[in-house]
What we know:
The complex is a heterodimer.
Chain A: H1 7-26, H2 34-49, H3 66-79, H4 81-101, H5 104-115, E1 121-124, E2 140-144, E3 147-158, E4 165-172, E5 175-182, E6 188-190, E7 204-215, E8 219-223, H6 225-261, E9 263-264, E10 267-268, H7 273-302, H8 307-338, H9 343-356, H10 361-374
Chain B: H1 7-23, H2 28-34, H3 39-48, H4 66-79, H5 83-103, H6 106-118, E1 123-126, E2 142-146, E3 149-160, E4 167-173, E5 183-189, E6 195-197, E7 211-222, E8 226-227, H7 233-244, H8 250-269, E9 271-272, E10 275-276, H9 281-309, H10 316-328, H11 331-340, H12 342-345, H13 352-359, H14 369-379
Parallel strand pairs in B: 1-4
Antiparallel strand pairs in B: 2-3, 3-7, 4-5, 5-8, 6-7, 9-10
The complex binds flavin-adenine dinucleotide (2 copies).
Amino acid sequence: MNYDFSExxxxxxxxxxxxxxxxxxxxDSDRGDTGAVGHRLRHALKxxxxxPYLKLGLQAQEGLDxxxxxxxxxxxxxxxxxxxxxxxxxxxxFGRILxxxxxAEQKERWLAPLLKGEIVGALALSEDSLxxxxxxxxxxxxxxxxxxxxxxRKQYVVNGPVADWIAVAGAIEDxxxxxxxxxxxxxxxxxxxxxxxxxxxxAICGLSLENCRIxxxxxxxxxxxxxxxxxxxxxxxxxxxxxxxxxxxAAFESAKDxxxxxxxxxxxxxxxxxxxxxxxxxxxxxxxxxxxxxxAAWTAEHMPEEADSLTLCAKVFCTEASEDVAGKxxxxxxxxxxxxxxxxxxxxxxxxYGQIAGTSTEIARVRIGDCALEKP
Amino acid sequence: MDFAFTKEQLMFKQEVIRFAxxxxxxxxxxxxxxxxxxxxSFRKLGEFGILGLHFPEDLGGSGADVITTVLASxxxxxxxxxxxxxxxxxxxxxxxxDTIYRHGTDEQRKKYVPKLASGEWIGxxxxxxxxxxxDVASLKARAEKKGDAYVLNGNKMFITNGPIADVAVVYAxxxxxxxxxxxxxxxxxxxxxxxxxxxxxxxxxxRTSQTSELIMNDCVIPAQNLLGEEGEGFNxxxxxxxWDRSALLAPFVGAAQYMLKRCATYANEREQxxxxxxxxxxxxxxxxNIRIFVEAARTLVYRxxxxxxxxxxxxxxxxxxxxxxxxDWSLVPTNDGVVLHGGYGYCxxxxxxxxxxxxxxxxxxxxxxxxxxxIISKLM
Lengths: 376, 380
Ligand SMILES: Cc1cc2nc3c(=O)[nH]c(=O)nc-3n(C[C@H](O)[C@H](O)[C@H](O)COP(=O)(O)OP(=O)(O)OC[C@H]3O[C@@H](n4cnc5c(N)ncnc54)[C@H](O)[C@@H]3O)c2cc1C
Ligand SMILES: Cc1cc2nc3c(=O)[nH]c(=O)nc-3n(C[C@H](O)[C@H](O)[C@H](O)COP(=O)(O)OP(=O)(O)OC[C@H]3O[C@@H](n4cnc5c(N)ncnc54)[C@H](O)[C@@H]3O)c2cc1C
């Protein structure tokens, strides 16, 4: 047992912190037209590729593991949430699809440049009427000679408008597979960029595929629907947990700093229990979330059979906590928080996403309940 | 980071669960109903070695590490042992015996620790007073040195094991002009003239633990019953906080785990509308709430325990976070456990209402949730 991070990890966190501070200072990563978003993302991926960050979870890194990644994700998310989401959907989610199911050629072709920050990836999984994982995907592919023809529609694809390659999940015969589709492929139509409550610095769109023909060597894996999609959801959920930690941290820190420096009745407002005790509850949620998230990440590597339900526990807890903490932070910052353009306001707007995306909070609770019923 | 337990730790936890299920749990309901202390179970805990796990072998203990000790406390809750008995154990072992072990002279240790570790004697600790709870430093009990004796006067309130204890560690002021620095700790044995306990207080939960006032009325004790030096009492009481935030919280985690198991079994068996109630999402939602609470809470408790095993000074902020979380965040999941059982949940036989009642001590005992928030907001 060990509840500390090692020196190696602490040095890595400082490196990420420094890098992200400089990227965050260089420009507002939470706004911008699609061109600017794409440019910023590519620049960030290149810089992050100079560190072990992009490789974590995909290739073994000496002295770094799941909990190290969780803490590093917290740092990135706290400083630039939209950039975080874009980086993660590319590196971690798109990347893990290749590192887990890709064959040697596919790894060479896509994973290697991805880890160098040279290409941007996206995942298109969600469909408008079929969001519960155990329902069959409506996106279907048919083999035709040495090609595959795909038809279907996808919604809410992070990086969709800026990605070089999109990993589309679909059904082929009685299995599921991932189809790697290049940005200008014939038959791929990207929808307009979607405006969202939070994460407005990420480029998100829907897409449709009409007789989109790809070479068979761009089909990654064939897996049982439940198993494959379950894995992808686990990775997405881990990313969302990391995002929630960062949002909480940013909101808490800004409210704490403000409460210590802003005065009312000739004393800093933290001296009032109504404010100080709120901060105490926020820190309790943050610390509890951090520990649970790290334990879930550790469990995914060491006791994979227990990882799904524990990750869902962490996801429900951390995402709900982040909304709560961000709301309390705004309350403490009061007028100064309600004015757009501060970390607490940003966290407040982004937080809800965590409960919706990946395995939604409702479905997560159902799953956790099922798990308790299976082995009381 | 590494969240793994050793094989031995996990095996021991299972051993404790088996022991408790067989030897203790069958008597829990009866004693809770009668609000009676279960002397038989306490004796068995002593025989099994749980009362003195972390003390060295030459003092009747097993030399266990803190994590093992915490797992044993959790295991009792997980087996279905009530919060009253685990609180009695906590007050006895960690608040009384451990204080003597840590701060006593060799003579004091040899005299009391083995008897407490075996369960031959029962211990208690008296700090709170009728008018000094959260504001401990304002306590009024007075200890005056007269020759080679101390004369103690004052009352202590809400003292776990008060009515049944053979020995008490009691805090009183040797210098009433000072606040914290005026507090000293004393050992008082049952039967000492001028020392008595009030009747057992009727409580909402943790009912099998006996709670009372302790009354000191010109109670004369030998000067060698002082623990450590005069004025060190407050620090001693603060050192018990390490145990309070680990081994005393662990049974609540265990009890919630027990609740989860019972709820899942019930949800699989109970049928309404032609199907097991576990098929309804609202029932799964409650199971999920309990599970999420258990997972979040246990990590906090283990962290405090692990830090203590490393010999680190207590991180008061982290300890307060653990206490606050277990106290305040347990309300919804333990309520869910009751409601999931419907009318049966409201009845004693199903244990759910007891776990709910026992859990309500969480935000009060050993420092209220408000006090934890005060500590956290000051230290952040
Ligand atoms: C900003 C953003 C970015 C996203 N990025 C991506 C991406 O990059 N790639 C991708 O593939 N997807 C992405 N998503 C999609 C995301 O995963 C889905 O929004 C999510 O799975 C929920 O699906 P839905 O919005 O269609 O809601 P629905 O599934 O229609 O759910 C509506 C409500 O009903 C509840 N509900 C639904 N079914 C059940 C049930 N069986 N039991 C109980 N409750 C139920 C839900 O919890 C929810 O509260 C993104 C979404 C957003 C908002
Ligand atoms: C079952 C049980 C067993 C116990 N066992 C023991 C034992 O073995 N030994 C022992 O010494 N004590 C024991 N206690 C006492 C326990 O530690 C105290 O009850 C607790 O510390 C609170 O003190 P109090 O009851 O005097 O409440 P008070 O301190 O009077 O508090 C009343 C209310 O005011 C709030 N409050 C007080 N001060 C502040 C502040 N500054 N800011 C904001 N809010 C504040 C509190 O949070 C609480 O809500 C036990 C109590 C119980 C119920």
